[in-house]
Amino acid sequence: MSACDDETREFRLKAIGGLSEITRERWDAMANPGWRLSPTGTLAAGLESESQRVDSISPETEFNPFISHDFLSILEDSGCVGQAAGWLPQHLVLEDPDGEPVAALPCYLKSHSMGEYVFDHAWADAYERAGGHYYPKLQCSVPFTPASGRRFLTSRKIDRNAAIAALSGGLRDLCRLRQASSAHITFMTQAEWDVAGAEGYLQRLDQQFHWHNRGYADFDGFLGDLASRKRKQIRKERREALGSGIEVECLTGADIGEHHWDAFHAFYEDTGARKWGRPYLNRHFFSLLGERLGERVLLVMARREGRYIAGALNLIGSHALFGRNWGCLEDHPFLHFEVCYYQAIDFAIANGLARVEAGAQGAHKLARGYLPAVTRSAHYIAHPGLHDAVEDYLSRERRAVERESAVIAAEYTPFRKG
User: Fold this and answer.
1) pLDDT digits (tens, 9 = 90+) for 119-171
2) pLDDT tens column, 369-403
3) Which is nearest to 251 in space by CA: 303, 295, 283?
4) Looking at residue 163, what is its pLDDT?
5) Nearest C-alpha neighbor of 338 from the set 406, 270, 244, 241
6) Read out DSSP for 169-204?
7) Percent of the chain topping pLDDT 90
8) How far apart are CA 119 and CA 121, in angstroms?
9) Helix (H, G, I), strand (E, B) or coil at 144
10) Angle, nearest 10°, between helix axes 258-275 and 283-293?
11) What average pLDDT does this structure show over 3-28?
12) What residues contact residue 131 under an 8 Å CB cut-off, 6+ apart?
């Protein structure tokens, strides 16, 4: 494949079959330019640290752990991602005339729609009933991870919009080469979404709930911003969650041992089997995560009578805490809220993080101080008939999502008014 934009005519696009085909240094220079990770995940700003000032940070410039070489290669090396899992890596890489990678798009050839959190099952069913073959398809995302961030990864050696246009065209070419029905770029930034729309991709909106740090000194400062009824309810929930002698530990880096991962994996397996039927992440994944990205991990564990009974896995960005997985072996009132939401807020305040992203869906988060946040995806559908039907559906869905977010923000906010 060759880049189709005039400004990148001498550049070359290729698809690689895994992160082992590109060095960590080269990938991360595109994924998180201006940031450096140690071998265990300690984060530091690079030489151009002025661009990381808090007053100029955005999803386009902040450090995101999920798009790092470490995280994506952990998924591959553990076997959670691969041909057997129905996630075959086909990462697009744009090289300059000297063969230096300057842009990339994490991409997978898929034989199903599991583990994506942007649902297209109805599209697949409709196309199959009409006699088409929806699979394979291309999925540009972080597998099993409903967290927004850059999908078009660009170094500082290339114009970002030109690179996005080149990768967007290359993705359509890859669709044809792999005989895929479609390509889906999910949980992208708004700037990327805008450019993809201009490139002819269909645009989709959805909604999550995020907590925002308004410069709070402590959890009581956050509670002071809430309406009285919500404030009292949260205090009650935190008090009751730690009844029955339950203790909570917050662990990062070297404090996380294999026995912690053993316990958390048991929680994850139990909850995953009940929710999805088949958990996506295996035990080896968690060991590799602790080994390669331990300093970017916050593991919140609840213990009762000397035994771990519940836990939540979070990853730490430069400006956000990302809640990922929760599991438990015992049910206790409000323990889920304490371990997943309130401990995350405590950590964000203590570490000066700007927000907490608590994962997919969950309107129940609103009462806990998490407000609506729009998520974005872009879609290329090769078949004209299916394209037109999906386009019509998405235009109506976007309006519904925007209306719902506006109504929630105006009428159901947990914060004090005035």
Assistant:
1) 999 999 999 999 999 999 999 999 999 999 999 999 999 999 999 999 999 99
2) 999 999 999 999 999 999 999 999 999 999 999 99
3) 295
4) 96
5) 241
6) HHHHHHHHHTT-SEEEEEEE-HHHHHHHHHTT-EEE
7) 87
8) 6
9) coil
10) 130
11) 84
12) none
Cα 103 to chain centroid, rounded:
19
Decide: residue 258, CB within 10 A, 0-12 exposed, 13-18 middle, 19+ buried: exposed
Q: How far is CA 252 from CA 12, 298, 305, 309, 338, in A?
A: 41, 5, 23, 18, 18
CA–CA dist 277, 274 (Å, integer): 6
Cα 277 off chain centre by: 21
Q: Phi/psi at 411 (nearest 5 deg)? A: -115, -20
- In 11-27, which positions are buried (b, 16+ CB within 10 angstroms) versus exposed (e)? bebebbebbeebebebb
Average pLDDT, whole number, for the chain?
Answer: 93
Q: In what order do the strands lie in the sheet with 153-154?
A: 12-16, 91-95, 101-105, 153-154
Q: Is residue 148 classed as helix, strand or coil in its secondary structure?
A: coil
Residue 408 tokens read as 């929630």
pLDDT tens figures, 223-275: 999 999 999 999 999 999 998 899 999 999 999 999 999 999 999 998 776 66
Question: 69-77 and 283-293 helices cross at what angle (nearest 10)?
Answer: 150
End-to-end alpha-carbon separation of the chain, Å? 57
Q: Give whole-number Cα distances, 26 to 99, 102, 166, 214, 390, in Å.
A: 12, 8, 19, 36, 37
- Decide if 106 contacts 67 (C-beta within 8 A): yes
Which residue is it, tokens 């993705």? 171
